[in-house]
Amino acid sequence: MSTKLTKLLQSGLKIFTLNDLGILWGQKNRSETRQSARDYAAGGSLIRLKSGVYAMPRVSLDPFTIANKLLAPSYVTGLSVLVAAGLSFQYTDRVFSVAAYNKSYELGERTFVYSQIKQTVLFNPLGLEDTAGVSVAGVERAIADLLYLNKGNYPFEKITGINWNLLNRCAKIYDCAFMPKAVTTLKERYA
Q1: pLDDT score for 21
Q2: CA–CA gap between residue 141 and residue 9 (Å, rounded)
Q3: Distances (CA, A) of 66 to 22, 54, 78, 94
Q4: What DSSP string describes 36-51?
Q5: I need a surface site. Which of 30, 44, 117, 142 has the fewest CB within 10 A?
Q6: Beta-carbon neighbour count of residue 177 at 10 Å?
Q7: Tell me, what DSSP letter sits at residue 118?
Q8: Closest CA to 127 of 173, 187, 69, 182
Q9: What's the CA gap between 46 and 57, in Å, rounded?
């Protein structure tokens, strides 16, 4: 096995950007890293997910991790978080995130959907959880994102166990007139 593949296996990562590969392989030349990645993908040692993003073959890949790597900076939010938290029962093969611009990618049976959000919101850490480099909104931030992206009107199925104080604080980061009223209406309905 080549030294480069050994370094990938030892890293513990399953998904790599070209920047990740360059660091792990000690390559400063991006063109050299890109060509090495292409060669490994052609040989079946890596799988190309999209331009500049690769994965180890024959490993289980977490959709939230894929979402963070496909488009950076971004974080998983909205319906994806509510389903994972048991607050929505809608089946979806989509992973919802927010980023600096709208984009979607289809990988196999799954679609990764990115909604544009203000830079000040995207980079505000309030209500976000970062685990092993994977950025995911907490429930309160996901609710705030859904309210903001849907102009204060989202058909929530159930909302329980919410930290209303945190949701109110999250609502303020959007600097948007309808957000406080949307949170108040939601609290009246579910608290």
Answers
A1: 96
A2: 34
A3: 19, 10, 16, 12
A4: HHHHHHHTTSSEEEET
A5: 44
A6: 8
A7: -
A8: 173
A9: 6
pLDDT tens string 77-135: 999 999 999 999 888 999 999 999 999 999 989 999 999 999 999 999 999 999 888 99
Q: Is residue 74 within 8 Å of residue 139, measured between CB atoms?
A: no
94 Cβ partners below 8 Å, 6+ apart? Answer: 79, 80, 110, 111, 112, 113
- How far apart CA 25 and CA 8 sit, in angstroms, is 8
> Among all chains, which residue has been given the structure tokens 């792990």?
24
**DSSP SS3 for 172:** helix
Instruction: Name, in order, each residue with C-beta under 8 angstroms of 16's C-beta and a sequence gap of 6 or more.
Output: 8, 24, 37, 46, 53, 54, 55, 69
- Cα separation, 104 vs 113, whole angstroms: 4
3-state secondary structure of 135: strand
What residue ranges of the chain are covered by domains with CATH 1.10.10?
3-55
pLDDT value of residue 52: 94
Domain 3-55, CATH class in plain words: mainly alpha
